[in-house]
Amino acid sequence: MLAVAVVRPWLPHGFGLPCPLRSVTGIPCPLCGMTRAVTYAVHGDLGASVAMTPGGIVAVVLALGLLAAWRVRRVSVPAWVIPAVLGVLWAFQLAKYATGRPL
Questions:
Q1: Using one digit for the tens of pLDDT, what is the confidence trace for 37-87?
Q2: Predicted structure pTM score
Q3: How many Cα atoms are found within 13 Å in the side-chain-facing hemisphere of 41?
Q4: Kind and range of the H or E element at 41?
Q5: Range of the domain at 47
Q6: Quick one: which of 5, 46, 83, 85 could link to 42 by a disulfide (CB 3.0–4.6 Å)?
């Protein structure tokens, strides 16, 4: 993820898959904008990253943490954390959608 984010600005503009939910319904999914957010975060543009989705910075921090602690054999995450994070990210995306801000 981090390696692709580093070289993504030099790849063709349409690189990446479109969001299936947004393509069919027009409504953004919880992870809409994540590719651009991670790319912005890796390149140091944290404001643009948060504007896309705050999950981009979280993903980069988690990836760097996992790279730093690669010897840890097991990472334990409570079962409620993943749906809670996805719910917060989707609420953020729906708020952007409702106010007409760019997705």
A1: 999 999 999 999 999 999 999 999 988 888 888 777 777 889 999 899 999
A2: 0.78
A3: 26
A4: helix 34-42
A5: 2-71+79-99
A6: 5
Question: Residue 31 above 80 pLDDT?
Answer: yes
Q: Token pair for residue 10?
A: 């030099």
How many domains is the chain partitioned into structurally?
Answer: 1
Between the alpha carbon of residue 14 and those of residues 5, 30, 97, the distances in Å are 14, 21, 22
Residue 4 is predicted with a pLDDT of 78
Query: Using H for helix, E for strand and C for coil, what is the string for 43-84?
Result: CCCHHHHHHHCCHHHHHHHHHHHHHHCCCCCCCCCCCCHHHH
Give the CA radius of gyration of the chain: 15
Spatial distance between the Cα atoms of 27 and 46, rounded to a whole number of angstroms: 25
Question: CA–CA separation, 6 vs 44, rounded Å?
Answer: 11
Structure tokens given for 24: 């069919």
